[in-house]
Each structure stands twice: as C-alpha cells, then as structure tokens.
Amino acid sequence: MNRTMKGKVMIEGQELTISNPTKLLFPEMGITKAMYLQRLTALSPWLLKHCQDRYLTTIRYPDGVTGKSFYQKNCPAPTPAFVQTDEREGIHYVKLQSLPVLLWLGNLACLEFHASFDRISDRDHPTEWVLDIDPSLEEEPRIMEAASLVGELLESLGIASTPKTSGATGIQIIVPLIPDLTFDELRRIGEFVGTFLSNKYPRLFTIERLKKLRGDLIYIDYLQHYQGKTIIAPYSPRARNRATVSTPLYWEEVRRNVAITDFNLLNIEARLAQEGDLLDLVAPQPLRHILAFISGSKKGQSE
Questions:
Q1: Which InterPro entries does the UniProt record give (predicted)?
Q2: Are 117 and 169 in contact (CB under 8 A)?
C-alpha cells in the first residue's frame, strides 16, 4: 500500500488526518501506526491524567523504532486549532489535555512522552517525589532487588511509595506528596536515602553521577527530580523493540522479580482494566517530618 496514503477520522468532534496507517512503528511486535493509535486511545485516560499540567517533551521516530529519532519540546507545526501550548523560556510546549491532541502527536510518530516534574500551575512545590533507580548495565538482573531495598528503607521511614518501570532498564520510586516541600528540600531527603543505601550495600548502589565511574553499580539518582527536568510519564510507551510501557507495579511484583519487558502495548490495556492505576493507591503524604529527622541526625553526628 502507498506510504503516502492518508485518512481522516473524527475524534471528540475534531478532525484528524492520519498518514501512513500501515507503517510499522514496532516491527518486532507487528505494531503499525494504526494499531499504535488504537493503543494510545486505550491508554489515554491514564496517560492524559499524568501529563496534564506538565511541560511535555516527546521523542519522535518518523520511521519507527529502528529508524532515527529526535526530541521535540517546541510544538510541531503546522498546529491544529485544538492544540494549546504553554510558553516557558521561549519554548512553546504542547498541553497534552485531550485525546485529539494525543492522537495528533501519535500520528507524528511521537513514541515517548516525557513529563516535567514541576507543574505549569506551580513550579516550586512538586506533588510527588521521585527516586530514579538507574542501572549502569544495559541488562541488570539485580534491578528489582535494588528497587525492593529502596522501598523497604522508605517504608522504615514511614514513607509509602509505588514502584514504576521506566519501560527501558530502570525503576522509578514515586512518592505522592502534600505539596509543601521544595525541590531542594526533597533533594536533601534523596541524598540521605542514596548515601545510606550506598554505604550499607556498597556492592550494589552508588550515588556517583558519572556513569564511567560507576562500574556495574546501580545509581540512586535523586538529582533528576528537579524543576525543568523530566521523567517518562506513567503509561507512556517506550521506543523499544518490545514496545514496552512505563508501568506502575505492586511491591509484591517487584519482590517476585518481574521483568520490565513483561508490560507492553499489547497487554497493558488488559492490566489497566483489571488493576486500575496503581498510582492511585497511595495518598499524598507529608514529608516535612522526615526532613526534620534528617536534619536532626546530621546535627547529632556533628556534635
């Protein structure tokens, strides 16, 4: 079929032009652009929820995951009338707030959706705290063990959290917050957690920023969580051959050593229908008392 074929569809009262619907975006999984847009539609209630009020960065793969890619922060042109943007430091970010906008981006072969940690409505007080558990090796059989140890430490501090696959190689630990702490204050908590675990498990963890100096250690990245930085959005696809999806997990699944590749565009809809959004299971919580505890501990050590 001609690669330049196009069709028009009506989505929530908006007309979208779909180009090259038979183009393979994930050849290994047999996922065409038309299938990809169907999967985005199924994911949209959750993906939109976690991208709303965020500055959005996408990664586009015009020829699918086996082709070249590029990051897109500025809103692509031409821009349909139903697409709204928000300007920040000269960049006009797409506001991902409806299914037509999501499918418009999907038709442009945006295969990954990265959302800012800070919200458009409040850049100073984050509504979640995130620790990125980042392996130094492309294949790391210890990643779930590492995530479990981080979760256990947080639990011992009275902090409830939800693990989430990155869809690539790592795990992110998400703590929903009552928004009264700044990013800098949360970094102090992250530094405490990372330092404690690196000292207790020196053959597993590191807080060394330079990848070339980490060896095979797993990096506890507490610095990524900051204004202007992004995270792969929950339920975003990843541009991987297996069409993986960034997926929140139960802690029991982490302890069972599930594989990141177990969750993909072909099965995520069934999981959501059965389990719902696991990020809703933990209520926003205060962490100011944790900050006070850490400050008290450091003061006691210096005396």
A1: LigD_pol_dom, NHEJ_LigD
A2: no
What average pLDDT does the segment 177-196 reach? 97
Range 6-119: architecture per CATH: Alpha-Beta Complex (3.90)
Name the residue ranges covered by the structural domains of the chain. 6-119, 128-296
Q: Which CATH class is domain 128-296?
A: alpha beta
**Amino acid at the residue 124:** D
The residue behind tokens 């507490």 is 222
148-162 tens-digit pLDDT:
999 999 999 999 999
Residues 19-63: tens digit of each pLDDT: 999 999 999 999 999 999 999 999 999 999 999 999 999 999 999
Using CA atoms, how far residue 205 sits from 16, 194, 217, 218, 254, in Å, is: 48, 8, 5, 5, 17
pLDDT tens figures, 241-257: 999 999 999 999 999 99
Of 161, 159, 160, 167, the C-alpha closest to 143 is: 167
